[in-house]
Specification:
There is one protein chain. The chain has 159 residues and is mainly α. The chain has one domain. Helix content is 70%, strand content 3%. The structure holds protoporphyrin IX containing FE (HEM). Protoporphyrin IX containing FE binds at residues 15, 23, 25-26, 29, 32-33, 69, 72-73, 76-77, 79-80, 86, 92, 95-96, 99, 102, 136, 139-140, 143-144, 146-147, 152-153.
């Protein structure tokens, strides 16, 4: 029976890229969020202490943050391609655009450090780390809205 308190869902929002019902995208996104935050933290410590250890840490956190951000985007895009119910929701496309902006920023941050080494950390590395932190906050907050507000990716039984 359909609850009178909840509008009827006329199409499926359940995740299709999942392991034992747990969406792969949701498992992966924690890594770029944590690593992008750690990159900003490392840059701030480098700025404060001048210890090159923190500049080298930022090279690794930015690189892994970008790689796992790409993996997150692949799993999110697979949901878009494979689940018609998810694909037809405009909120998911806004989230994808925010995620692409995020990947551009964190990819540039990593590339800068690869090419110019430790010298890249100040000031442009730090600038990109602040930008990346803002972008990951926006994409992550919006991703949370998809799930907790719009119930995208959730498996809900109607009663
Ligand atoms: C083209 C790229 C992306 C697409 C199409 C996409 C799509 C989605 C979809 C459909 C969901 C709902 C849950 C699910 O069905 O798995 C979601 C949730 C989410 N996404 Fe993305 N996503 C993309 C990239 C990213 C990236 C790079 C991040 C990294 C910050 C991210 C962060 C999140 C978060 C935090 C959630 C909420 C997870 C939760 O806590 O329940 N997404 N995304």
């Amino acid at each position: 029976m359909v609850s009178p308190l909840r509008p009827r869902r006329d199409y499926e929002l359940k995740s299709v890229v999942a392991v034992a019902g747990h969406p792969v995208h949701v498992m992966l996104v924690n890594f770029p969020i944590a690593l992008t935050s750690a990159t900003l933290g490392s840059d701030l410590f480098y700025w404060w202490s001048g210890d090159a250890f923190f500049a080298r840490t930022a090279l690794w956190t930015s690189g892994w943050g970008f790689a796992l951000g790409v993996a997150s985007a692949v799993s999110g895009s697979a949901e878009l391609i494979l689940a018609p119910g998810i694909r037809r929701r405009p909120e998911v496309w806004s989230h994808a655009i925010a995620a692409m902006m995020l990947l551009a920023v964190i990819g540039a941050n990593w590339a800068l450090r690869l090419v110019y080494g430790i010298e890249a950390a100040l000031p442009w590395g730090l600038f990109l780390s602040f930008l990346g932190f803002g972008a990951v906050g926006l994409a992550g907050w919006h991703g949370g809205k998809l799930v907790f507000e719009h119930q995208i990716g959730m498996e809900i039984e109607e009663r």
